[in-house]
Structures are given as C-alpha cells and as structure tokens.
Amino acid sequence: MSDLLRALAGETPERTPVWFMRQAGRSLPEYRELRVGTRMLDACLTPDLASEITLQPVRRHGVDAAVFFSDIVIPLRLAGVDVVIEPGRGPVFADPVRTAADVARITAIDPADLDGTAIAEAVRLTVAELGDTPLIGFAGAPFTLAAYLIEGGPSKEHLRARAMMHADPASWNALAGWLSRISRRFLEIQRDAGASVVQLFDSWAGSLSPTDYRTHIAPHSRAALEGIGLPSIHFGVGTGPFLADMRLDGIADAVGVDWRMPLDEAIRIVGDDVAVQGNIDPALLQAPWPVLEAHVRDVIERGRGAKGHVLNLGHGVPPETDPHQLTRIVQLAHGEL
Ligand code: CP3
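A: This is the predicted complex of the input protein with coproporphyrinogen III.
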C-alpha cells in the first residue's frame, strides 16, 4: 500500500507522505509552456493535456500523490452551465443563480446526464502512467460552488450565498442538494476511471458561522462524500471554529487544516482518531530555505500526535512559488535531506 493510503488509514509510514494542493499548475514553467493558447477549462477537457499536466509535478518533485488537473467548476460546465475561468480572477458565470426561479431552472438539469467521457479518459491515461503513485480525484463542496454560482464570480464574503440560506431556505436546500449531486457525480467519474483517493474542497467555508456550517452546509457536503468507497480528505480554509464538524460525522478519513492554527492544536480539536492533512504556510515558500525547512520540520513534529498525517500546504501553491522549494520539502519529508 502506498504511504498516502497508509496515512489515510491511520498508520505512520516511515516516510511522511506529501503532496501539494495546486501542485499541477502555474508554479511550473513546463505547465505554462503547455498551456499557451488553450483556455483553462478547455485544457481540463483535453484528455492528453490534462493527463500530462497532472503528471508534471509527480515527475519533477517526487510527491506521494498526483492530483487530477481539472477544476471545481468542470462538472457545472459539463452540465451545460455557462462558466469560464478568467485568468487572475477565477470562475465567472454568465447567469448567476439568485432567485427561486433561477434555482428551479438549474436544478432541472439531471447530474446523471453530464458527459464524463473526457474526464474518464484523462484519468485513465494518467493512472496508466502513474504506476503505484495514487491519483487524488476531487470536487468542490456545495458551499464553495454556490459561493461562485450565486454571486456570478469571485467575492470576498460570499454575502449572497449566505443570505440565501436564511432568506429562502427552500431554494438554498434545493441548490446545495443539487450541487452536492453534481460534485458527487464528478467524484464517481474519477473513481470509476481509477482515482484512488478523493478530496472535497470547501475553500470558502471559513466565511460561515459554526451554526450556519452545521445547519446549512455539513449535511450537503456529507452527501457528496458518503459511500463513495474511497479514502477521503475534507479540506477548508478558515474552518478553525468548526474544525471538528469537518469530519462530517466520521465520513471523512482526513481533515485538511489551513496554516492559521498549529497542527497539534488542530489535532486536539478534531481528535486523535482521524488523519489530518496540512499545514505548511504557503507564505513561507517565499522564505530562504533554512527558514522554510525549520517550519516544515515543526509541522511534521506537531503532526506526530495524529492518527495519520499527510504533509501538505495550508492552501494551494501560489503561482509565484519557486518550484525548487517544493522539491526540497518532498526530500525533507522523505528523510533525504
Ligand atoms: O491542485 C491541483 O494542482 C489540481 C488542479 C486544481 C485546479 N483548481 C487547477 C487550476 C484544483 C484542485 C482546483 C480546485 C479549485 N478551483 C478550487 C479549490 C482549491 C483552492 O485553491 O481553494 C477553487 C476555489 C477553484 C476555482 C478557481 N479556478 C480559481 C479561484 C482559480 C484561479 C484563478 C486565477 O487565475 O487566479 C482557478 C483557475 C485554476 N484552476 C488554475 C489552475 C491551475 C489557474 C489557471 C491558469 O493557469 O490560468
């Protein structure tokens, strides 16, 4: 069994398994070269391109897992929703979903109808090349997707999405339930084509109060993951106040922790009977290696109290990162430095 799967099963392999959120992407010159002339979502839907981009960081850094090159909005695009990714900005929707009528219109699309052919093909090509290295499939959690869809694009406090939960709870539940089925379908396509772990990204959950998270969000995120049949990681940013809820009643095998809280403190909150993933501060990637090295050693040390630790960043790799810093972190985790 690979070290990643062992850690997710609660074991402590000799070498700490490590991968990086957003490892496939803009910090790599070989990625930027491949992407010239192709729009982000078109690249995701071109199987040989998506597969090659997924493999690049595995070859370069020797990480313990590949993460599938795609995007959280891809299943929406496959469902026929008009969405593009604007460089430097993020997902932008032509028709924001704001009223009960908007919700009724979009939820009439059956998630079972989305065409997963290109995704399945890209996953199969990738898994064939990876050998024993596991492929992590992923999806966006319902709240993070709703935060984009309701607003129509990126926003700071996701006010419209948080407002809908209270102003029109029936529409909110219909929309979040539909998004959870959309993301679930995306996970199933990746699973059926050979992914061996899944991660649910709730990047913007930190804008919620613990009560709103528990009442209006957690049941929908849980539905996206429950019974998927693969080890799962549930990640959010700024979720310290409700980190224990991120376990989703025991459905998640690992909880992702951002950089704001020391890992040992996070373990006290989530419990020492679940794996954790994290939590190198992405800002430290800009620091001289000795400073970053001390930080990474500290994270590994604090992770020892967990029932399984997967080393990662507290959020994605910033585009301006020197890739050599990432390679050195892998070497350190593997006891090669
Ligand atoms: O992690 C990986 O390497 C796998 C691929 C991956 C991408 N997006 C590729 C991508 C994953 C797992 C995601 C998830 C994703 N997408 C999230 C959750 C993770 C997180 O970082 O919080 C979110 C919120 C999105 C939505 C999204 N897509 C944003 C905010 C952006 C950035 C826009 C920008 O240019 O600043 C994207 C675009 C995106 N997704 C890029 C990549 C490599 C950059 C596209 C480019 O090269 O221009």
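The chain has one domain: 29-278. The chain has a mean pLDDT of 98.
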